[in-house]
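Pilot study result, target chain (281 residues):
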Amino acid sequence: MTPVVTAAVLLAAVTHAGWNAIAHRITDKLVGFTLISGGGMLIGLALIPFTAVPAAGAWPYLIASSGIHIAYYALLMTSFRLGDFGQAYPIARGTAPLVVTLLAALFAHEVPDGWAAAGIALSCAGLTGVALWGLRGRKPDWAAIGAALATGLTIAAYTVVDGLGVRASGSSLGYIAWLMAVQGAVIPVYALRRWRGRFAAELRPFARVGLLGAALSVTAYALVLWAQTKAELAPIAALRESSIIVGAAIGAVFFKERFGAPRIAAAGLLVVGIGLMLHAG
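Predicted structure:
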């Protein structure tokens, strides 16, 4: 990974944590994700006239990714509704590089070495700590943890699918434009049917912040897709999840979520594990 690719992925990590924080801040998750997903669709439609149409070989990946992204949005909404941002975000994002490492070996023939194996072990320990810290005799909220883990699986799936798709597309910008346009309509259409005559009224109070989230979301993923044409999938996925630290800070500062020493240590293990996977790349 060159310095330019590394910088692009780190910027994607920051912008990704930002749009997830915005999605969490909007109390009604359907409102938030309608604005973010619909705003992404509008950005994609605006870009299409100025970008190349993805090559034919990219379209099966693009269509599959659209379906996976819809499942991702649904699961992310659920995990944010059930759990703290400082817990749900690290679990969802930390799960992804573990699974991407395995999927990249299977489907992209990018086989991990011993560093990656050590990174997976440390990351799993960190994930467990982030998930279970602070229970103090209480039973784990398995619904929240399960939703976050399932979100991580969808992240891993679309990361690999889009990594293969963007490489086949011939244009990373064209791929992201069409992807946003295709998958971005589903949640707004569902919301339109559910709210009927109240659609604009439901969205108006959060329109500005929601559309900012959409811009951050598209920027974050466009940077990642471009990077995936320049380097292997697993180290990019690992480096991108440095957003875990940004997300933890946002949860503590803006949402007043307690993030004490045990969870900091657990998140630290997670990040060290991700760093080892990055070293493997």
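One observation from the pilot: Residues 93 and 184 are 21 Å apart (CA to CA). A full batch analysis is planned for the follow-on phase.
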